[in-house]
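Hello, quick one for you while I still have it in my head. My current little project is about how a certain protein chain folds up. You're getting the sequence in one-letter code plus the fold written as tokens. Would you mind checking whether the tokens look sensible for this chain? Here's the protein in full, and shout if anything looks odd to you:
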Amino acid sequence: MSTVLERPAAGLATPTDKEVQGALATGLRNRWYPVLPSRFVETGGRPVGLTRLGEKIVLWRDVQGAIHVQTDRCPHRAVPLSRGMNEGDRLRCAYHGVEVGPDGTVLSVPGQPGCPLEGRKAVKTFPTVECADAIWVWFGDALHEEAAPFNPPEQLAGGEWGSFCCYADWNASWRYIYDNLMDPMHGTFLHANSHTMYQGDTQATFVTRDTPKGFVFEKAGQRDVNFDWSEFLDDGALYVRLEIPYPKTGGPGGNFGIVSVITPIDETNSACFFFRVRKVQGWQRDVWRFLYRTKLEPRHWHVLEQDREMMDGCGLGLERHEMLYQHDAGLIRLRRYLAKEARGQLVALREAGKA
């Protein structure tokens, strides 16, 4: 996690707060983001067009099942490639039949064979991995088109952990959803009728604890009672981890964990990934997965719906009307961190003449 900002070169204006907030509106760059659950893109099936971080992208699988993510724009007339056909090893634009390969090279121009467009890498291709049943894409800036290593937290890497990929689109800025995740106190009130979050003190003192990749914001003197802590991590992607204690009826294993990654769609909409995780193996994992699918999942979506209703329609500029207090120290620190990172990226781009 970066901790030092470089001083702008002589003659270059320091980014203003407005410019920093504008850069953050559609997401912090140079990070991995999940863009869609893996099951939504079929092998050899139709290409899927999406908007993520304000960019139009197309997702498709070749006949071997490999996932490809590219700019959703034909290099000929700039119409969406997602409206074309998946030919198994390439996309064919529906407008004039131009064919584009997985690396963005134009393979064929049927209307004028041999034209200069053929053989050119004319479509941007994004670094892509699949993990925890989701498709992750690297969104770099002009200085970081090559992806950083993808190092998911242990809860998403399999092994001792079982997980479910829970996905929903919300009509809210990605930053306000992260604020909600860094606010453990709202669980005591908003989710008071939840089957897992009805206990705990309605008053609390919070403390912040640094970690190698971020920080923990937690209730002092209360643990394993309610939604008692949140951990923010910046490790190639932006994660918020939390745990909710399970009653014995929830099956074997420890606390129920959630690893959240919020991917901006545009300034006012977000693709939300709430990975439900539990440290269980063998038959215990099978029992937990069965209980989750048959008994617990509807309850968890009910809790998420309460959060969604609070966030619904929350566009940019909400901060102007807030009057924050001690319970909000976690989200304040997160906001400052994101602003610092965005400012550093703007400075670097200006120094390199890329902004």
Observations:
- Helices lie at 17-24, 174-181, 186-190, 282-311, 329-351.
- The chain has two domains: 38-132, 155-339.
